[in-house]
Design goal:
The structure holds two protein chains of two kinds.
Chain A (H helix, E strand, L loop, with lengths): L1 H28 L4 H6 L8 H11 L4 H13 L13 H36 L3 H15 L3 H15 L10 H32 L3 H7 L4 H39 L4 H11 L2 H29 L2 H5 L1
Helix pairs in contact in A: 1-12, 5-6, 5-8, 5-10, 5-12, 6-8, 7-8, 7-10, 8-10, 10-11, 10-12, 11-12
Chain B lengths: L4 H21 L17 E6 L14 H10 L4 E3 L6 E3 L2 E6 L5 E6 L13 H13 L15 E8 L2 E6 L6 H4 L10 H4 L3 H4 L11 E7 L3 E6 L20 E6 L3 H9 L5 E3 L6 H6 L3 E6 L3 E7 L9 H9 L3 H8 L29 H10 L3 E2 L5 E3 L2 E2 L1 E5 L7 H15 L2 E5 L3 H7 L8 E6 L6 H6 L12 H11 L4 H17 L3 E5 L2 E6 L3 E2 L2 E2 L5 E2 L4 E2 L3
Parallel strand pairs in B: 1-10, 1-11, 17-18
Antiparallel strand pairs in B: 2-3, 4-5, 5-7, 6-7, 8-9, 9-10, 11-21, 12-21, 13-19, 13-20, 14-15, 15-16, 22-25, 23-24
Helix pairs in contact in B: 9-11, 15-16
The chains are: A mainly alpha, B alpha+beta.
Chain lengths: 309, 540
């Protein structure tokens, strides 16, 4: 197990380094640079000569030296300064991260809850129209644009019914609508995979054996089928993490939340390279970490995988 | 049914949360007492469209930045937004020598920055040294509103004198703009990155920073000991409001919906198509003029197609600005009648020269040798009459405007290629007349120098010209001390720019705000940034 963990961690570090290098190179290849974008802004009204002077001031040494310096910075936690706002990137991340973490984790939990309810009720139900209706819910959910859903929820619950404020209000109140907005599309793939794998497990020969022993429907579903159906679902749930981040860009903009999504959007707009690089590496780190956790959980949940590990 | 227990719990929690939320919102809209006597206290919730960026003062042109800096800094002088006259503020009086190369300001006594340091002659001198000369060491760029600056001289604690290499008649107005906000020496000693951050901007204004959540919210608190408003302001002493909450709300319909549903008191950037909704709900629309170079298309003579003045004039004649305004905008956006707004200093009415005349446009293009091809697009020597333009992020409905103009031009056989506003490509291509033949933009400043900012080859240079005559005219304008002569020069420049087909003015761009009926005393500076100092709420 220790060796397995070590080798997986090593792989994770390698993936991170590759993500850093690839995005560093790609960002260098983009047309223009953040200094140009910033100082060429007509609001500043600088002459071409002044812009050239500022660029010369900011320009680093050789490309390789720059790369190594930035890499060293990332390893030691120094992520440089945002060119757009002048704040250290680490500060921006420290402010934005908890905001997104709250949103994403609450939305993830709600999404799992919705998915489990849909899949379980559909599998448990004997009424075929209800089952059909429930199983078609995920396809509806996944095709709802987060943008549209967010606006709709705000219009109905905040502006018309005046139930939750979008402006002001406590942290909890401010979370309700964005969490719903983000959870709905994410619940869809989880619900689909869960429902499908429950069906597959039901088809396996051990189920009639348990039923023959006199177990109730609920007992069979909960104690035996669901336990076995959870593995593929877990993989999908891990993968939806990427969607959580992508969805939060839209959700945070609609709801005016200052999270990673908004930060990324603005950094891209201003071509704020240090911020963009940090966000890419952060996203990669989260992704790698979630997959690492999923991989480590697998053998614990399914003893058969232990031997392979 | 134990599976639904978590669901039930969640639903109940949500309902409880919702009920709890109900309590706050229901303040009755009844008019208690008379609504005309200002009252102290309360918080103004103001929704911004975009988050502020770098708050280094000369960068205050960006509206979200100006909206904050205008509350926390004071200026040497005050420009009356109606008459555009320059009045005393921190400077009680001033003398300007005949050729406008020396300005002496006498300062008000007892003004302090919010860090306790005095706003005296040496502080003012330090401010303008930075704005006039920049600071390479601290990476501070110079400010656009100061021309020909040489040095400052502290005559005594209450008197400061500025020297200029050449006449600088625009300087007096320059001391009244938001970018000339005075900050403490501590702020000035910081490098550029630090001066970008709001927490480091220490001014002497009626509000100070209380709390900031970057990209989301800025809370300003009234300074209780504030006692140096412009003498011409009716209101004196501390601001009426206790607090201003500036909350970034990027979504247009969330901003307007929040205003109308009572969650916000005032919003910036009401889109033209939302104005009616706001008015119908009994709310106020403030469409504040920006009094500068109009929203328009600026044509670049360095482009190989546009180097022909006939082509430029053809596009000018073939653009129907009125249709743009009627289709996309409202009465808040007057159709342009010159390069400058009709409220700008030195404006001349050129509506005749700018009349829509598609026949003349076609004739000019024929004359220039551009013949229609099979696809309806004109061509000459195998080159199609196709021109590139970027969607301009800061301009309202820029994409829609350009699309409409593209339709008008298509009728002439001209293809307008509209590119999305991607900052990177734009930064590179916008300085390339071949790739970006046309620029969509405007600039607001209530001084004659605004036209120089827009067109001079050493300033914004929107048309990327090498027209020596234009540069010379602009330099003469900015160095002309006599007002009448200066306005005449501005008129000459407007005529010249239109004659040369450098500009296709579309409309006079306002800043459009919406406010609840209980928000009183709403005021703006000369180019439409809000001033919350005398704002009060009629019912709490």
């Amino acid at each position: 197990m220790t060796r397995y963990l070590l080798s997986r961690t090593g792989q994770a570090a390698l993936v991170l380094w590759a993500a850093f290098t690839a995005s560093y190179v790609l960002l260098q290849l983009l047309p223009g640079d953040s200094i140009l974008i910033k100082f060429q802004n007509p609001e500043l009204g600088l002459s071409p000569q002044q812009i050239a002077e500022i660029r010369a001031y900011y320009a680093g040494g050789s490309p390789i030296g720059d790369y190594l310096r930035t890499l060293f910075g990332f390893v030691t936690g120094g992520l440089g300064y945002s060119i757009d706002t002048g704040t250290p990137v680490i500060e921006r991340l420290a402010e934005a991260l908890p905001e997104t973490a709250r949103l994403a984790s609450a939305a993830f939990l709600l999404a799992v809850l919705i998915a489990v309810v849909i899949a379980f009720v559909a599998s448990y139900s004997r009424t075929s129209w209800l089952r059909g209706a429930l199983l078609s819910v995920p396809s509806v959910f996944i095709s709802v644009p987060a943008f549209w859903l967010g606006i709709l929820l705000i219009q109905v619950f905040s502006f018309r019914l005046k139930l939750v404020p979008v402006i002001g209000g406590g942290e909890l109140q401010q979370l309700i609508l964005p969490v719903l907005t983000l959870a709905v599309p994410i619940s869809a793939p989880i619900a689909q995979v869960l429902a499908r794998s429950i069906d597959q497990v039901y088809a396996q020969p051990f189920v009639p054996v348990i039923e023959a022993k006199g177990a109730t429907r609920w007992w069979v579903l909960w104690r035996h089928v669901a336990r076995n159906a959870v593995l593929p679902t877990l993989t999908v749930a891990g993968l939806t993490f990427g969607e959580l981040i992508a969805g939060s860009v839209v959700t945070e903009t609609v709801f005016g939340r200052a999270g990673i999504g908004r930060l990324t959007e603005q950094a891209v707009n201003a071509q704020d390279t240090p911020v963009m690089l940090a966000v890419v590496v952060l996203a990669a780190a989260v992704f790698v970490l979630v997959n690492l956790v999923v991989d480590v959980l697998f053998p614990i949940l399914d003893p058969r995988l232990k031997a392979a590990a | 049914m134990s599976p639904s227990r978590p669901l039930l719990t969640a639903v109940m929690l949500t309902v409880v949360g919702l009920l709890g939320a109900c309590g706050g919102g229901g303040a009755a809209e009844t008019a208690a007492g008379d609504g005309n006597k200002p009252v102290y206290g309360g918080t103004l919730t103001y929704l911004e469209h975009q988050p502020p960026t770098c708050l280094y003062l000369p960068a205050a042109g960006f509206y979200p930045n100006g909206g904050i800096l205008n509350q926390i800094t004071d200026k040497l002088t005050w420009q009356d937004p109606e008459t555009l006259k320059i009045e005393p503020w921190i400077a009680t009086k001033w003398e300007i020598n005949e050729d406008a190369t020396e300005y002496t300001f006498h300062l008000r006594d007892g003004v302090t920055f919010s860090d306790g340091s005095p706003l005296d002659a040496s502080a003012v001198a330090a401010n303008f040294n930075v704005y006039g000369l920049g600071d390479p060491e601290l990476k501070l760029p110079v400010a656009e509103f100061v021309n020909n600056y040489e040095r400052s001289e502290v005559v005594d604690a209450k008197t400061v004198k500025f020297h200029f290499e050449k006449p600088s008649p625009g300087f007096l107005q320059g001391t009244s703009v938001i970018g000339a906000g005075l900050v403490s020496k501590k702020t000035l000693s910081l490098p550029y990155e630090q001066q970008c951050q709001l927490k480091n901007i220490i001014g002497s204004g009626p509000f100070t920073l209380k709390n900031q959540i970057v990209d989301k919210e800025v809370d300003l608190a009234a300074r209780k000991d504030y006692n140096w408003a412009p003498p011409s302001s009716q209101h004196q002493g501390r601001a009426y409001l206790d607090e201003v909450k500036i909350i970034v709300t990027p979504e247009d319909n969330v901003r307007v919906g929040a205003l109308i549903s009572g969650q916000a008191d005032m919003v910036r950037y009401v889109q033209a198509y939302d104005e009616k909704t706001v008015k119908d709900a009994g709310f106020q629309i403030y469409a504040e003029p920006t009094r500068g170079v109009n929203n328009g298309l600026y044509l670049r003579p360095a482009n190989s197609i546009l180097k022909d003045v006939d082509v430029r004039r053809a596009l000018q004649a073939g653009t129907n600005a009125k249709e743009v305004v009627d289709t996309l905008f409202t009465a808040s956006y007057p159709v342009a009648t010159s390069v400058l707004s009709h409220l700008a200093q030195g404006y001349v009415d050129l509506s005749k020269e700018l009349a829509y005349d598609p026949d003349q446009a076609n004739a000019l293009l024929d004359k220039a040798g551009w013949a229609r091809g099979a696809d309806g697009i004109r061509a000459k020597d195998g080159v199609r009459l196709q021109l590139g333009v970027f969607v301009s992020g800061p301009q309202p409905l820029s994409k829609q405007t350009l699309e409409l103009v593209a339709q008008q031009w298509a009728k002439l056989g001209v293809k307008l290629e509209i590119r999305p506003a991607d900052a990177g490509t734009q930064a590179v291509d916008i300085k390339n007349a071949e790739k970006t033949a046309i620029q969509h933009g405007m600039v607001g400043r209530a001084d004659q120098d605004v036209i120089k900012s827009h067109f001079h080859s050493q300033n914004r240079d929107v048309i990327l010209h090498e027209d020596e005559k234009l540069d010379r005219l602009l330099e003469e304008e900015s160095a002309e001390p006599a007002v009448a002569a200066r306005n005449a020069k501005v008129a000459e420049i407007q005529r010249y720019v239109i004659e040369q087909g450098y500009a296709i003015p579309l409309f006079e761009e306002p800043q459009v705000y919406g406010a609840a009926p209980h928000v009183k005393g709403v005021a703006f500076e000369a180019v439409a940034r809000p001033w919350f100092y005398s704002v009060w709420k009629s019912q709490q």
